[in-house]
Amino acid sequence: MRPSFSPRPRACEALTALAVLLLVACARPPSEPVPTPAPAPAPADADADAERQPALLDDAATTTAAAAADADADADATSTTAASDDAAPMPAAPPPTGALPERRLALERSQAYNRHAVHGADGERLAAAVALDLLPSGAAELREVGEHRRSVLSNGPGDRSRYRATTRRWRGAWSGYWRPSAAGFTVTLAPRELTCSIEHEERVDLAHSSEREDCPPAAPWATLRCTPSAVDWREAPLADSEREAPTWRCASDDPLSGAATPWQFGQDRCLREEMGMRGRGAAFVPCAGEPSFDAPATDTDAAPD
């Protein structure tokens, strides 16, 4: 008897193969689409792009220039502020409250001494004058002139004589305004002309840096505060009798170019302040005439040969 074959196994094999093909097709990632090249721009579109390109460049240049201008403006504002902080302007003059008197005040200051020691000496010479004019209009003028000389000599045993002198000369003119105050009056001044010079004379260098002197910096403007005061004065430096003279004592916290404040101006006469060694033991005598605002000449120390 011949065995019979059924077609069912073959159909199952075909269905299984079809299922495997379907699974492989589903697991494969989709292929990327091929980019389609863009069509070339028409001539009209190319011309429009060419026309827009300079405008875009101009906008970029304008933006860059504006940013640079802003940066420059910021830098200018910073430097201007710093300059104004360093040199503040003098305050404006307030209106006077009534009629002002006229005052013309003057003083002189002098000093002369030599101090001797076993192996050397040192000394100072000072001649200075100050004049303060207070006008009825409220304007004020200040003039100052002076010369200060310091010297030192050293000749120890077995050493060469060593000598050095330093001389500072100054002249100043200030202008501004003055107003009465509850305690007296105040004067606000700005420098109109300032000059200062330093001369060094030495034979052998000395290790005394304190004997050197420099021109001090002057303030961009200064305020003098003057109050009533009094000093004892003599007709001559060696006179026995003393009398009291009313004065205006003027002081300032701002550095001026010449003699240091406070200043004692005689209210009814010019007084000369004669200072002792290192500024001690001051005595007041009348000025010998009107102060001179020419460059004063002090006595020169005799240098050793």
Structure report:
The protein is an alpha+beta fold and 305 residues long. It is built from two helices and ten strands; from the N terminus they run H-H-E-E-E-E-E-E-E-E-E-E. Strands 8-7-6-5-4-3-2-1-9-10 form a ten-stranded mixed beta sheet, with no helix packed on it. A hairpin with a 7-residue loop joins strand 9 (271-275) and strand 10. The longest helix is centred in the first third of the chain and has 44 residues, at 43-86. It is flat, with a radius of gyration of 47 Å.
Short description:
The protein has 305 residues and is an alpha+beta fold. It has two helices and ten strands; from the N terminus they run ααββββββββββ. It has helices spanning 8-27, 43-86; strands at 103-117, 120-134, 139-154, 162-180, 185-202, 222-233, 243-251, 263-266, 271-275, 283-286.
Biggest pleated-sheet summary: 10 strands, mixed
Question: Biggest sheet: strands side by side, in what order?
Answer: 8-7-6-5-4-3-2-1-9-10
The low-confidence runs, each spanning 5 or more residues with pLDDT under 50, are 1-7, 40-85, 299-305
Globular, elongated, flat, extended or rod-shaped: what is the shape? flat
Radius of gyration, taken over Cα atoms and rounded to an integer in Å: 47 Å
Task: Report how far apart the termini are.
Answer: 163 Å
Structural class: alpha+beta
Which percent range fits the helix content?
Answer: 10-25%
| Overall pLDDT metric | 75
Number of helices: 2
H-E order? HHEEEEEEEEEE
Q: Please provide the count of β strands.
A: 10
Into which percentage range does the β-strand content fall? 35-45%
